[in-house]
Specification:
single chain; 447 residues; alpha+beta; Phosphorylase Kinase, domain 1; Transferase(Phosphotransferase), domain 1; six-stranded antiparallel β-sheet; three-stranded antiparallel β-sheet; 18 helices
Length: 447
């Protein structure tokens, strides 16, 4: 290894030490530290990803694993199978094991299946720890490690330069997969920085639902927010709040099962012209859902068009309580740290996101109403610091200056919602819902 190579490996390890796992793993692989990369992924419970790293390094098709002559590569295949088995992908694990067992028989004679299985069960836990230790195990050790699903061994391409897809274990959460023996995944409905959402079929209840799969399982803060979403939403029973059913773990990933929504979020909806009466109807429903949340002490903290879903029946569903605050519980944030979407954050939320009030959500409703009625949010700046300062200190341009057709009564409601001091805003979502509902009667569909 040259001095330059050593420096690159040290830099990759520094990324790992800094907690930047997704950046560190490919850097480690490029520098040849494949086992170290797999070990890091497994330490963060990313078992399938760890198995993929090991399998990618073999340079052969999955069905050719049994022909590997290098004992170190066979050991990697064994460790990959162990990880797959641990993740619940049993068929894929067994396919790899069978190939390795055939190779072991060629090298050392017949193996007694009963003895082999007994040995595996006896060492199931210990082997998970030892198989990720540095250094190549012996060929005999290859057949004694517990080894994980559905690798297509017939149709994978060949070559020493096989890419990630050539020996990749299938993603546990993909269309067609069966989660926990109960939920059959359908199409991918959406993806965000924190999770993916799939349509699914609950086989036990013969019901279509949605499954939200948490991606960043190595981030304890995001995991806490994921659990917070379930805890917060479960306390709210209202037709304008999406229903969450349960939480589970499968293949090293946390997931939520929730009500299946058909339609589009409000951000998508307002990409096309929208009647003011429709806007008022959506805002009325959103405020009613918020009122139900506030009554049980839940403050959303991230109200925005993306988190307001409009079903095909015109019903509004508030989504994503992942950063909601339970008034009686400790927050997930530190003092002075803002949480939310800057364009929609109230001044008090910018200063300290733990000290939020129901009026904080109503400020975000005011920003949303402003956007619905004018086509833009009141404060825009490419520089985040300047944007936050504008939220804290600047008065918004009156909506009627941007949309002269807007009735002055609606402008008055919006500007009251956007008061900098929370005590000067409406204090209850129910009151705002009533104000929007009354305006909708005056400003009907004909206008």
């Amino acid at each position: 290894m040259t001095a330059r190579d050593s420096t690159k490996l040290a830099a990759a390890r520094a990324l790992l030490k800094a907690g930047r796992l997704d950046a560190a793993v490919p850097a480690l692989v490029v520098e040849g530290a494949v086992d170290e990369a797999a070990r890091a992924l497994a330490d963060h419970d990313r078992l399938v990803d760890a198995a993929n790293v090991l399998l990618d390094s073999l340079g052969v098709r999955a069905r050719e694993i049994g022909g590997l002559r290098d004992p170190h590569l066979r050991a990697r295949a064994t460790r990959a199978a162990a990880l797959l088995r641990q993740a619940g992908m049993l068929r894929g694990a067994r396919q790899i094991e069978q190939q390795l067992e055939r190779r072991a028989q060629e090298l050392g004679g017949p193996v007694d299946d009963a003895t082999l299985l007994t040995h595996r069960h006896a060492n199931a836990i210990a082997a998970l720890e030892t198989t990720l230790a540095p250094g190549p195990p012996s060929a005999d050790a290859d057949i004694t490690r517990p080894t994980l699903d559905a690798i297509d061994v017939e149709n994978l391409p060949t070559g020493r330069h096989a890419t990630r897809s050539t020996v990749r274990a299938p993603e546990a959460f993909e269309p067609g997969a069966l989660v926990d023996g109960r939920y059959e995944l359908g199409e991918l409905l959406g993806r965000g920085g924190m999770a993916r959402v799939f349509r699914a079929r609950d086989r036990e209840l013969s019901q279509d639902i949605a499954i939200k799969v948490f991606e960043a399982d190595d981030d304890p803060t995001l995991l806490a927010r994921f659990k917070q979403e379930l805890l917060s939403s479960r306390q709210i029973a209202h037709p304008n709040v999406v229903r969450l059913f349960d939480i589970g773990t499968f293949a090293g990933r946390k997931y939520l099962t929730l009500e299946l929504l058909i339609g589009q979020d409000l951000k998508q909806r307002i990409a096309e012209p929208i009647l003011v009466s429709d806007s008022l109807g959506f805002l009325t429903q959103a405020c009613r859902g918020l009122d139900a949340a506030h009554r049980v002490g839940v403050i959303h903290r991230d109200i925005k068009p993306q988190n307001l879903f409009i079903t095909t029946a015109g019903e509004v569903k508030i989504m994503d309580f992942g950063i909601a605050k339970l008034e009686a519980a400790a927050g997930l944030t530190k003092p002075g740290v803002g949480v939310g979407t800057p364009e929609y954050m109230a001044p008090e939320q910018i200063k300290d996101s733990r000290r939020v009030l129901p009026a904080t959500d109503l400020y975000a409703i005011g920003i949303t109403a402003y956007r619905l009625c004018t086509g833009r949010v009141p404060f825009v700046d490419k520089d985040l610091l300047r944007l936050l300062k504008r939220q804290l200190h600047e008065a918004p341009v009156p909506p009627t200056q941007l949309n002269p057709r807007l009735p002055p009564q609606l402008e008055a409601v919006i500007l009251r919602l956007l008061e900098k001091k929370p005590e000067r805003r409406y204090q209850a979502a129910a009151e705002v819902a009533e104000a929007f509902a009354e305006l909708r009667k005056l400003y009907g569909p004909a206008r």
